[in-house]
Amino acid sequence: MSDDATTSGEPALPAGFTVETCIVVACRTCQRAYGDEEEGVTVHFSGLDDAARTITAAGWWVTQQGTQCYDCAASEACATLGHAWPDWALCRCEGRIPAHVQQMEFRTCAGCGEQEERRAHTTTGGA
Ligand SMILES: [Zn+2]
Ligand SMILES: [Zn+2]
Ligand SMILES: [Zn+2]
Predict the structure, then answer these.
(1) Is residue 71 pLDDT above 80, yes or no?
(2) 18 CA from centroid of ligand 2 (Å)
(3) Taking the model in full, what pTM does it have?
(4) If 26 and its partner were Cys, which of 2, 4, 33, 76 is the partner (CB 3.0–4.6 Å)?
(5) What is the pLDDT of residues 103-120, one digit of tens each?
(6) pLDDT the model gives residue 6
(7) Ligand 3: distance of its center to the CA of 101 in Å?
(8) Distance in Å, CA 70 to ligand 2 centroid
(9) DSSP class of residue 28?
(10) Long-range pairs of 48-52 with CB within 8 A, sequence gap ≥ 24
(11) Which residues surround ligand 3, an ion (CB under 5 A)?
């Protein structure tokens, strides 16, 4: 007696319990489930429309290829179109970041939030 038929179905529920189908959404790229971030729990939707509307409002992308969380959608857009870098801005840590032994400047991509830093081109050294 090796294999029963028990693997094929769910156990019968006592009267009063009903299995309902719901929809959970996960990013097709990073597999992160929608809702993980803020609530720490996966959000269950009652229907596709409901799910699509909610995650789109939260910044997720819903395309023919599937769903993408905001981060992955932004990263993919940046990979395709290039980062949306603003001008360099001087770091104001004033030495609080130990690695910044000299004045650094940084910029943050407006799309994906990636950061770059470099040494500031200050030759005078005055404040
Ligand atoms: Zn993702
Ligand atoms: Zn970017
Ligand atoms: Zn700094």
Answers:
(1) yes
(2) 46
(3) 0.61
(4) 33
(5) 999 999 998 999 999 999
(6) 47
(7) 8
(8) 12
(9) T
(10) 48/23, 50/23, 51/23, 51/25
(11) 91, 93, 97, 100, 104
